[in-house]
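Support request, priority: normal
Reporter: lab tech (M.K.)
Component: structure prediction queue

Hi team, I submitted a job for Methyltransferase domain-containing protein from Medioppia subpectinata yesterday, and the status page still shows it as pending. I've pasted the exact input below so you can check whether something in the sequence is tripping the parser. The sequence length should be 179 residues. Please let me know if I need to resubmit or if it's stuck on your end.
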Amino acid sequence: MYIREYDIIVDLGCGTGYLADQLSQSVKHKRIVGVDDRSATPLPSVQYLVQDLSQSWDSLSPVLKALESKVSLIVSNFAIQFISDKNRLMHVVSKLLAKNGEFVANYNRAPDVMSLLTSEQIKQYNIQLQTKSELQQLDEIQTACSGNGLNVTKVDVSLLKSRVNEYSIKGRLKSMAIL
Ligand SMILES: C[S@@+](CC[C@H](N)C(=O)[O-])C[C@H]1O[C@@H](n2cnc3c(N)ncnc32)[C@H](O)[C@@H]1O
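Reply from support: The job had stalled in the queue. We restarted it manually and it finished. Here are the results:
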């Protein structure tokens, strides 16, 4: 079996660095960098950088920019949903990635709350939200990828059904979750 070796791995929105630490034990690599906008005590295997990833490439810290075109694998677990400008984020991702580098992200899409409400509910509660459909959100990230020279090779959408992900609006909606 062919097992790819990675030079530099970056975990975007790494939290405590749990995923990065798991990767450090299971994937051949030279260096693992975890990036998050909150400071945390990282696991010892992970080099931790505090950085707001909603910033443009030019505004990033010199330490992160020094990884330009050097990162062979970027991962992100349930973090990129917090960064609204996906085009800017994908620009950062494409700047970091080395030739043939890969980006693997797992994230939630936001529920399209407005489409779940009746016009009576919208009126009654004076709800003025701008929410995007699941398809719009998927299209947005795919456009952000292709616009920044990233080739989308796999999209896997799954529906999570758990208590945590249940939304109920005045008992009219049963359950719904969006990933
Ligand atoms: C749900 S946690 C996931 C943490 C980790 N990836 C994991 O799987 O345990 C989301 C993380 O994204 C980080 N985050 C949110 N917005 C961010 C931003 N603009 N820049 C960098 N990190 C951000 C949060 O600080 C948090 O650690």
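The pocket of S-adenosylmethionine is lined by residues 13-15, 18-19, 36-38, 52-54, 77-79, 82-83 (CB under 6 Å). The radius of gyration is 19 Å. Let us know if anything else looks off. Ticket resolved.
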